[in-house]
Amino acid sequence: MNDRHEALVRAFYEALGRGNLEVMERCYHPDVSFGDPVFQEVEGRDRVMAMWRLQLGVRDGLRSDFRDVRADAHAGSATWTARYTFSRTGREVVNEVTALFRFEDGLIVRHHDEFDFKRWSRMALGRPAGLLFGWTPMFRKTIRDRAHQALDEVS
Known about the structure:
Elements: H1 3-18, H2 21-27, E1 28-36, E2 40-43, H3 45-56, E3 63-71, E4 75-86, E5 91-104, E6 107-114, H4 117-125, H5 129-133, H6 137-154
Parallel strand pairs: 1-6
Antiparallel strand pairs: 1-2, 3-4, 4-5, 5-6
Helix pairs in contact: 1-2
């Protein structure tokens, strides 16, 4: 275990829970890259922070909690839960996320979130749309394109 990196991940999620973008940004390396099933790859601290501003600004805001933080000298992980209202449908989403981290110069240089896209689409869209379309490549592309368009607007 690396106490310093574990504390860094904890500080990041505590700041996320409070919506404190300044503290979140200080946890990231200038060359950070972020990936998840929706945004896929986002490069650079400015753009990654724009993505978090977008996420924290959704309808009633993003609420989160975290657990199972682990870290060593090079990598780390955590589990976190995101709670928010999906703006297109007004449906409540509770998304369980596994986060993986890489560290460089005492900061997070790689942050990758993984979650079940099919499960997310059922919550975000409801039945039958989420159940019927949530797994299709065309639906995923539509969601990704909208996310990147929104990110371009806030960047």
